[in-house]
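User: tokens in, sequence out, please.
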């Protein structure tokens, strides 16, 4: 991959990855998506990274998949497409991801936001899955994650009509957790990421795993998984340090052990 479609910058324990395909409105081609996932996989093994922020440009978070790629695919090519495996690798990232969204998050861009753990957006943000208007449907988790995020009726409306929703509706529906003025979106996301990244690394991984379990399973197995992870953390140095720091009235010094 000769093109640098993902810009990377780290401040403290926060790694910011910026989609950088301005000529294509940050469309997530397969190579671009794979480059993003490679950066995440590097960050997963980097102890200096506690949380990742993914962002785009002022006008486009990401405008969808690369339609030129889709145009060239028949059934056989779609069956052997490597994109599903790349998305699975994205989902396997064990550290928290905060999406900072300004402008349009459409199609695969909306699916990228949905696959992130927290979404902070600017007032200009628009979220939509317009695949139906092209004779398609979402194919990277859009139908499954959207309905879990915003509920049945709105998910059906968005997917079947292809119409986007604005930032305020996204907040009301639970697709995003905070809306701010566009100029502060990235700063707000990075500030939250810094707070998240300062927490005990093993506890962050365990908590994210438990939350994912809640999205993907029924209550009973989720409760079992949560308790198992809670029990595992009882043997960590960070847990002892966190409790000791509380009683000592000082900030904890987590080591990831």
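Assistant: Sequence out:
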């Amino acid at each position: 991959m000769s093109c640098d479609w993902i810009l990377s910058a780290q401040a403290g324990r926060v790694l910011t990855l910026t989609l950088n395909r301005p000529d294509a409105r940050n469309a997530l081609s397969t190579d671009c998506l794979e480059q993003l996932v490679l950066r995440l996989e590097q960050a997963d093994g980097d102890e200096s990274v506690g949380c990742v922020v993914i962002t785009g440009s002022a006008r486009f978070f990401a405008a969808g998949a690369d339609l030129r790629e889709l145009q060239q695919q028949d059934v056989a090519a779609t069956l052997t497409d490597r994109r599903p495996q790349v998305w699975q690798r994205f989902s396997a990232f064990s550290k928290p991801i905060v999406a900072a969204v300004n402008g349009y998050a459409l199609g695969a861009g909306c699916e990228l936001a949905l696959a992130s753990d927290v979404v902070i957006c600017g007032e200009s943000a628009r979220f939509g899955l317009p695949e139906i208007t092209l004779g398609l449907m979402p194919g990277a988790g859009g139908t499954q994650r959207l309905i879990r995020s915003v509920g049945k009726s709105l998910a059906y409306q968005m997917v079947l009509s292809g119409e986007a929703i604005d930032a305020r509706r996204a907040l009301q529906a639970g697709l995003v957790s905070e809306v701010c003025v566009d100029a502060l979106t990235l700063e707000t996301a990075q500030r939250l990421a810094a707070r998240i990244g300062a927490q005990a690394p093993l506890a962050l991984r365990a908590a994210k795993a438990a939350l994912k379990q809640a999205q993907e399973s029924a209550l009973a197995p989720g409760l079992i998984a949560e308790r198992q992870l809670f029990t595992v953390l009882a043997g960590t140095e960070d847990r002892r340090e966190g409790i000791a720091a509380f009683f000592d009235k000082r900030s904890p010094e987590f080591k990831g052990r």
